[in-house]
Design brief:
about 280 residues, alpha+beta, M1 Pyruvate Kinase, Domain 3, 2 domains, 9-stranded mixed beta sheet, 3-stranded antiparallel beta sheet, 6 helices, globular
């Protein structure tokens, strides 16, 4: 499999950036999901999945500045095309959203595992999807636009578009090795929510996106139910650098993917119990 695209989303709910190469560690791509916008009056996060969202925020684009002395090592391009950097960002976002907001970094010490990534991820430090899955969905609903940006994945893997699709299922429990020595463990299929149906990065709103995924590919995720899935969540077993054009070696799972899914779900359930006690 080849790495066709690398995508990073430094601020939760904002548009992201395409990368030529990036360091990948336990918390995923360096700079990915490092901040979330918070209403300073209510303390409420303005995010895609956990909490309300705002189309004006979703129209902003965030870039992580690899070399920066700023408190906020970010550049944000606003919907009107104006770019703000560092300490200019929060006042500009407050004006845009018509309420006082701040960018909140992830403060918990991450463990680089499902549910405890060390950043503002929904579940896992890395999210991948294959071209065959996008191709399968495109054939199932050709009138919909199946751009990878809808899914806010970090990694688009090229395995061809003519295969049956949902190739991620066979990778669950297995490992992807990059030339740098980076090792990615594929953990669990990605259950989809309403986010991919929203207008995003030039793609129109389309409720048929989620309906098609549910119709084409439901997976039993135990206590989390039968979910429409596309893509996979992954963790990092060994840090390293990843570049567009890299070929990744696939190490087959040691156990059937269904068992790996059951184990991952059981661990997530146990973690949820621990956090509620």
């Amino acid at each position: 499999m080849g790495v066709l695209a690398l995508l990073r989303y430094p601020v939760k709910a904002m548009l992201g950036e395409s990368l030529d190469a990036v360091e990948v560690g336990p918390s995923g791509l360096r700079g990915d999901r490092g901040w979330v916008v918070v209403d300073t009056g209510t303390g409420q996060r303005i995010a895609n999945k956990r909490g309300p969202t705002d189309p004006r925020l979703r129209a902003c684009r965030a870039e992580f500045l690899e070399v920066s002395d700023e408190r906020l090592p970010l550049r944000v391009t606003l919907p009107d095309g104006r770019a703000v950097v560092g300490d200019e960002i929060e006042p500009a976002l407050s004006d845009l959203l018509e309420r006082p907001v701040a960018l909140e970094p992830h403060r918990d010490r991450g463990e680089g595992r499902l549910g405890a990534t060390g950043a503002h991820h929904d579940l896992a430090p890395l999210h991948l999807i294959t071209t065959s899955t996008l191709g399968r969905l495109r054939r199932a609903a050709p009138s919909s636009e199946w751009g990878v940006h809808r899914f806010r994945a970090n990694l688009l893997l090229d395995d061809g578009e003519e295969r049956d699709g949902f190739a991620e299922d066979a990778l669950v429990g297995g490992t992807l090795r990059a030339p740098s020595g980076l090792e990615i463990k594929v953990e669990i299929p990605t259950p989809r929510c309403v986010v991919p149906t929203r207008a995003h990065d030039g793609l129109p709103a389309d409720p048929a996106i989620l309906r098609t995924i549910v119709a084409e590919h439901r997976i039993d995720l135990g206590a989390f139910g039968n979910q429409g899935c596309a893509g996979a969540y992954a963790t990092i077993s060994r840090s390293g650098r990843l570049a567009t054009g890299d070929r990744v070696e696939v190490q087959a799972p040691a156990m059937p993917p269904a068992r790996s899914i059951r184990d991952a779900v059981a661990q997530l359930e146990a973690d949820l119990v621990d956090t509620r006690q």
